[in-house]
Amino acid sequence: MKLSDLKSIPGSRKGRKRVGRGTGSGLGTTAGYGNKGQRSTSGGTKGKSFEGGQLPLTRRIPKRGFKNPFRKEYAVINVGDLAVFKGKEKIGIEDILRAGFIKKMKDGIKLLSVGDIDFSIKISVHKASQKAIEKIQAKGGEVEVLV
Fold first, then answer.
1. Does residue 118 fall inside a structural domain?
2. pTM, 2 dp
3. Of 25, 88, 112, 142, which is most buried, counting CB atoms within 10 Å of its CB?
4. What total of structural domains would you count in the chain?
């Protein structure tokens, strides 16, 4: 006996329902969908959020606040992270990206004052906090803010 000789037991496999093939088939005219009602015709279903005419949940719950469509979101780098660049005198955006501090650029890079620095460095970023600028300038460095 080969695999190709195997056959299923008679009656174990049921034929598919052939809908809308005349009245003699038992599933003609209405094709099993009944005579009238919402589901009987094509396109007769409502969306997922439809609640039978009741006011939908998305319209019942209160809406609060304001979402600014022009908001800028910056990728953040800390002053303490700059220790990696100790030998360099000037670093830019490319150097920060190459070092792997930022996964996604977003609208630019912002320098924050978390951590300390113990050497002089010139850094170019899109934005910087006032305290971060003061920390770098205290060590004789410079922060260039790009526009």
1. yes
2. 0.58
3. 112
4. 1
